[in-house]
Specification:
Rossmann fold; alpha/beta; 6 strands; globular; 37% helix
């Protein structure tokens, strides 16, 4: 049984006004976080419909672009079969969570981690809470975090806020996240833009990250 409600199909919302225009995505500073894109969390979405189809396509484009540009790619995932004591209040709100079945814990093949990608195990909304994410970014010498995944008003928001408090610039890719409804999605983007994150579309980010061809002398 899933405690997650079915998500009605909706189109990606318009992005809010840019309130952090002085922040620019830079290849040497960036890392991509693919947040909670496990089958369990994607199952409530209607297959082959928006927003899931757009979410998968845009997240895959971001991952591919980062891999080609030598930008670190990290994944936040939850373990299946968590002990209720370990889940804490998440059990009260969302039930027992993922089972140990790969049908719950795996990611879609289009987003499967590559051999050089890092997988961060998390147990709360924020991908920073009680994880190795902060240490990984320090080791990689990255202070910009590009975030895609689900759910926008829950884990994505918590992670972006946490990044901001750590002086890591969060960039939430507005059409590469999704939520429990169009209302929640738009609300999350507006909240993020107002306080802690630059909100950009996938196309703008992939263009900024692609290595520029070297001109012949």
């Amino acid at each position: 049984m899933s405690y997650l409600p079915a998500v009605p199909a909706y189109f990606m919302p318009s992005l809010p006004a840019d309130t952090f225009p002085d922040w620019s995505v830079e290849r040497r500073r960036s890392a991509l976080l693919v947040h909670d894109m496990q089958n369990y969390f994607l199952r409530p979405f209607a297959p082959a419909a928006s927003p899931l189809a757009d979410l998968l396509a845009n997240a895959a484009a971001l991952r591919e672009t980062c891999a080609e540009a030598g930008i670190p790619v990290l994944y936040s995932v939850q373990q299946g079969g968590q002990d209720p004591d370990e889940r804490g209040l998440l059990t009260d709100r969302w039930g027992p969570g993922l089972s140990t079945d790969p049908a719950d814990t795996d990611l879609p093949p289009v987003l499967a981690p590559g051999p050089s990608d890092r997988v961060i195990i998390k147990s709360r909304y924020s991908a920073f809470y009680d994880t190795s994410l902060d240490e990984a970014l320090t080791e990689l010498d990255r202070d910009q975090l590009l975030i895609c995944g689900v759910y926008a008003h829950i884990g994505v928001l918590a992670t972006a806020l946490d990044a901001f408090t750590r002086d890591i610039q969060p960039f939430v890719i507005g059409d590469a996240v999704a939520d429990l409804s169009s209302h929640h999605h738009a609300m999350a983007l507006n909240c993020l833009a107002s306080c802690c994150s630059r909100i950009l579309p996938t196309a703008q980010v992939t263009t900024a990250l692609r290595p520029r061809p070297t001109l012949a002398p």
